[in-house]
């Protein structure tokens, strides 16, 4: 049985500065208008590794030795997120004040961690760090000799693309002694507002002021449960086939979204006539190459994200074939998956920056928790984080959502490269019950055994054997 509680004790916190700051680097980097839409809050990428043959001291030594050179290439992450006194806008002070290196100890073996409960696992691995830090690199050592390496950053500096680029570059640096690409750090100049600004008035309805009086109270927000799941390659293949037609082949994300949308409708039942799904969409592939150089955009770590959302009648979602629900998901994503959408967002924020001077900020209305029940899905790109001590068995983004009242699921490909996905979810208890009661059992609890930190469970062995 997994342990219910364990402590993570911080052994050291050290500020590490860039060893070779780039000459002439700007003292301050302005946030882009797309950065301002997501805003400033902490986000983590947590990678969990079994015991390396070289031992934990070698891992800690490698982390300490490589960080100064890494920060020289990714210099803003050695700085601080500050607020401009005149505009109220957040910005990045590139002052080489130092990134944080945290070493901590968890008095438990990985095989005994309750990975299925995110609050008892990933949430413990992600050590809180102080406001203003741009990067906190965190090594948590386990009693079995395994470890977690977490990249804690400020979302103002990175979206999912950027957050995964950091450990990939780090791994390349440790393996080869260098990084084969140069990050693009100039943020605001890449996404300049047009003159005059042009955007649809409908954008005003998509955003709301982020204010305590407009959010669910803290006790209501605390009723959410956080779970980790595994979706097997076989289940993804089956869902995709069911969500496709002769005229349209669904993506795996659309197929899983359609299945989850049906689970949401089942949980809502008669409590509301409607329910919503939303998706975070990376716009890099669709930015107009006439305005945005593709090579530059691929090396840009900042935010290029928007939300797609779709509301539907509960009865329609429940009764429609999976292929129809998947098509609705695909249509919603396609509506925002165009360059003009991101250019409109840049222009819209330019016209709405005044709220920062008043101490305010904006947030997407679909995430607040008002209106019909909504679940937000985000997906992380494929990545490998082997920096010389073996492959991780779990890589999971993590964020503390505070008082936002929507449900959420974040999907990532398993680093085991067996075609499975891992999902971390923030759910209302009623939705968690619907997931666990699902007769198709698509979302299976991410136990230590299923993640490869213990003996495989009999049901998984049988499922694997049935496909051989």
Please render the helix and strand layout as text.
Layout: E1 8-16, E2 28-30, H1 33-38, E3 42-49, H2 56-73, E4 80-83, E5 90-93, E6 99-106, H3 122-125, E7 135-142, E8 147-154, H4 160-176, H5 203-206, E9 207-209, H6 218-221, E10 225-231, H7 233-242, H8 252-268, E11 274-282, H9 294-298, E12 305-313, H10 314-319, H11 322-336, H12 339-352, H13 354-357, E13 362-364, E14 374-379, E15 394-398, E16 407-413, E17 421-427, H14 429-437, E18 444-445, H15 448-451, H16 458-466
Parallel strand pairs: 6-7, 11-14, 14-16
Antiparallel strand pairs: 1-6, 2-5, 3-8, 3-15, 4-5, 7-8, 9-13, 10-17, 10-18, 11-12, 16-17
Helix pairs in contact: 2-4, 7-8, 8-11, 8-14
Low-confidence stretches: 461-468
Strand content: 15-25%
Number of strands: 18
Q: Please state the CA-atom Rg, rounded to the nearest Å.
A: 22 Å
Task: Provide the residue-averaged pLDDT.
Answer: 94
- Bulk shape: globular
* Terminal Cα span: 30 Å
Largest sheet: 7 strands, mixed
Description:
By secondary structure, this protein is of the alpha+beta class. Helices cover 31% and strands 24% of the residues. The chain contains 16 helices and 18 strands. It has a seven-stranded mixed β-sheet with strand order 12-11-14-16-17-10-18. Strand 16 (407-413) and strand 17 (421-427) form a beta hairpin. Helix 2 (56-73) crosses helix 4, helix 7 (233-242) packs across helix 8 (252-268) and helix 8 (252-268) crosses helix 14 (429-437). The two termini are 30 Å apart. 46% of the residues are buried. Mean pLDDT is 94; it is low at 461-468.
